[in-house]
Design goal:
Layout (H helix, E strand, L loop, with lengths): L1 E5 L5 H5 L14 H6 L3 E5 L4 H6 L5 E4 L9 H6 L5 E4 L9 H6 L3 E4 L5 H16 L2 H10 L4 H5 L9 E5 L3 H10 L5 E5 L6 H7 L1 E3 L2 H7 L2 E4 L13 H6 L4 E5 L8 H9 L3 E6 L19 E3 L8 H19 L9 E4 L2 E2 L11
Length: 351
């Protein structure tokens, strides 16, 4: 059996950090295991040319959501032997799920592997923006000391209204972590939580329009779907409160690229932070790199060493189950036996 993994390059640091399991050099800790079982294991860092060479003879494909090999309908049509696509992490929107379902290719991701990591990153981004941390840090690097310049845009988080879009596994953990800051939380989701769940999280439901208009800070924690693709267009961005902050650790395509730049350049928004871009990796000339008042980083929120261990273990479990003819854990399955079985991706397959 031929297994191909498309992973980010680790370079010299990978040799010194064996815990960096998600990189190509350490290959999810699978190399010795798979080769001892007699399988061909190919690890790539090139997301296009090399993958296209190997696809026609690939049985199992492993990718990550932050170094995405876009598994398009065209690529699936050329992968005649492909039986299963595994996402090392959470988020399989880089895969054409309808095309996979039509071919009865199994698609799975490691549900829950990075929820703690991303939720903590959301809180970090919120604090970085509200406390004006990035300009303060830059002053230190530049050898400056201008307290007034920093403090003029620094705020307490307490008593601010935080709008949370998407209260799944990550969104709920964001709520739990923000409770300690005594903020006022409102949330929007397609499925409203129960009264008991709302009480436990300390968040109340609001329509999308009301959330956008009332929130001092908005964090996006929802999957990329046709409904959320481009959700924060120019109209919605400029309906946010003047001086509000927007955090996005979900998917870059949820926020319109140029409209966000405009909202920041005109001073309508006070700041934007996150780790997701479109496309990924972000090209050197991506406009978000140069826009004002941002705290953007590469897509690493779900790639802590602890998260990498969790999704590496999950990938190995999926491989063992698949090779031994056992069913992959239900919570991991996105496409199974010709159907999209995950509610988060149900949009992708219509009979």
């Amino acid at each position: 059996m031929k297994i191909v993994a498309v992973l980010y390059p680790g370079g010299e640091i990978a040799k010194k950090t064996p815990e960096l399991l998600g990189c190509a050099e350490n290959a999810l800790g699978l190399t010795d295991f798979l080769r001892s079982q007699g399988h061909e294991f190919v690890v790539l860092t090139d997301k296009e040319a090399e993958l296209d060479i190997h696809l026609p003879t690939t049985d199992i494909l492993i990718t990550t959501p932050f170094w995405p090999a876009y598994v398009t309908k065209e690529r699936i049509s050329r992968a005649s032997r492909l039986q299963i696509v595994l996402t090392a992490g959470i988020g399989s929107d880089h895969i054409d799920l309808a095309a996979a379902a039509a071919r009865k290719i199994t698609v799975a991701e490691i549900t829950g592997s990075n929820v703690v990591s991303v939720a903590e990153q959301v809180v970090m981004h919120i604090l970085a923006l509200v406390r004006n941390y990035i300009p303060a840090y830059k002053q230190v690097l530049d050898g400056r000391w201008d307290i007034a310049e920093i403090a003029a845009k620094a705020h307490d988080l307490e008593d601010k209204v935080v709008g949370i879009i998407g209260v799944g596994r990550i969104g709920q953990r964001v709520c739990e972590r923000l409770k300690a800051f005594d903020v006022k939380m409102i949330y929007y989701d397609y499925h409203r939580l129960s009264t008991v769940e709302e009480f436990a999280l300390g968040a109340r439901y609001a329509s999308l329009d009301r959330l956008v208009e009332q929130s001092d800070i908005i964090t996006i924690n929802t999957p990329l779907t046709p409904e959320t693709d481009g959700m924060f267009n120019r109209d919605l961005l400029f309906r946010m409160k003047k001086g509000a902050y927007l955090i996005n650790t979900a998917r870059g395509r949820i926020v319109d690229t140029l409209s966000l730049v405009e909202a920041l350049e005109k001073g309508h928004l006070a700041g934007y932070a996150g780790d997701v871009w479109f496309p990924q990796p972000a090209p050197k000339d991506h406009p978000w790199r140069r826009m004002p008042n941002h705290a953007m980083v590469p897509h690493y929120s779900g790639t802590t060493l602890e998260a990498q261990r969790r999704y590496a273990d999950g990938i190995k479990d999926c491989l063992l189950r698949f090779m031994n003819g056992r069913r992959i854990e239900r919570d991991y399955l996105i496409v199974d036996n010709g159907s999209v079985v995950s509610p988060s991706y149900s949009y992708a397959f219509k009979t």
